[in-house]
Amino acid sequence: MLLAICHHSLPAWPLNLILAQLVGANLVLFATYKVVLYPYLLSPLRHLPRLKGGYPLINHALLTFQRPLGDRLLNVHKTVPNNGIILFRGFFNSESLILTSTATLADILVAHPYDFEKPRPGAEFLSRVLGKGLIVVEGDLHKFQRKNIMPSFSFRSIKNLYPIFWSKSVALTERISTETFGVSPTVDGSGAVTGYVDVNFWSSKVTLDMIGIAGLGRDFNVLSNFDDELVEHYDFITDPSSIQNRILFGLWMAGLKSFAKVFLRSHDQNLTRRTNQLRIICKNLIMEKKQSLKAGSEGSKDLLSTLLESNMFSDDDLVDQLLTFLAAGHETTSSTFIWVVYLLSIHKDIQLQLREEIRANIPHNPEANAEFDLAETLESLPLLNAVCNETLRLYPTVPLTSRVAARDTTICDAHIPKGTRIFMSPWAINRSPDLWGADSEEFKPERWIDEKTGKPNKTGGATNNYCVMTFLHGPRSCIGQGFAKGELRALVAAFIGAFDIELENPSYVPVPSGIVTTKPHDGMPLKIKRVGEWASTIIWK
Ligand code: HEM
Questions:
Q1: Domain, as residue range, for 288
Q2: Which stretches of 178-271 are assigned E, i.e. beta strand?
Q3: Interface predicted TM-score (ipTM) of this complex, two decimals
């Protein structure tokens, strides 16, 4: 009887529908918890100063994608009152943090850097090409690699690389001269030979040549020869203008790796094939280098030789590191050089003073004078260093980076739950009026010159080192910063020593763009003039 009543009163739904309803109800409960209860009532982050407003559901999710990268964050730094940490909400109220003070940055980067890791999808994408290179590994493996690679980037090792940086910088000016003035030189009213060049095209070639010789011990000579096999594979894999590369990267970042492999099958297979080829070429380079070291060949100062001498890495590990140096150390310096050229084109007075300083202190062929200390001179010229440092401040080529808390931890006493995403913007910190004053966004190289001594200073007049975040700080800072600054000094000195430059179109305002590093979106077309004879040798006083 009871059974009969139940049978009639229960709806005649199949079991799977009931299950589906249970799952649906759970999903609604879970979504309510994630989207409403946790962020508004339970999250330990909810009391932090917050960026208000935003779009429904996505809130401020686009904040970290908007170009120029980091510029919107600068605005957030300026407008949201805070004590070093700002909370913002993204898709479905997910929470992320922006660090704005030198204290919170020092805490995460130096006090407990291994509590924070690089976001996994990006690191996995990179490791496809770079294997387990320094830039992508975490924890103890990172500590081991960093400790054993550091000596290759020591002050002494970099000093030994200056002659390479100089000779490639001079080769750049010669190549540009041939291309620009060689065929049909134009002479302007003052009698100077004039021409037009997009320095964007040449700058990534010269920095690739530099990292080739100074890093791998191989002269690609891309300045003159455009068909090196390694360079061709490398360019294909890293080409930021390739739509397929962009889509693949976007899908990986969204956690859709498997879908990406099917959707872009042939491109994906091509990448794998080229990556394998790259690895074979690098392995052969390592074999050759080993043999030449065994044969007692002297004089190799490149990074690979010093890594081989350390005897701490297998051949496969070395391949990962070589590819890492190529990837991390090529476009970054080349972009910075382009921004120096831009700033000097629009600040003619500084350009003139700099040329005087360079020509008065550096012979065009320093190698002809054994007494001349090129590294010492380039590192001590006040205006040269001031111009390089001020450009690195205003145009950090990695304008935005992020971390994820690997465990429950703290930042300056604020509790940070595991999994919290944290953004740090070198662009925003380097331009912050709180740290640099009202003229924070102006190009003022003199900040970097000590008023009393006239010598370069280390902080640009700011209160501490953390006011410049271009290379970050601590154990995950850029290991190649000494290398990059050496390249930049040589490039700027050789280029400005040789040419008078101005913008081809005086009203051109370059827009920084790029996926990870920033370059001017439409290149850097210049009008250049060869400046009269540069003394070949200067008698060093
Ligand atoms: C102006 C030029 C450069 C800039 C602005 C720059 C900037 C940076 C930044 C911001 C990071 C940290 C990224 C992060 O953790 O999110 C980094 C890491 C790194 N950079 Fe550079 N870089 C430059 C040149 C170079 C060069 C020339 C090399 C090598 C020859 C290099 C090798 C590396 C490596 C290996 C790392 C990973 C370090 C680690 O995690 O321990 N970089 N760089």
A1: 121-530
A2: 186-187, 193-198
A3: 0.99
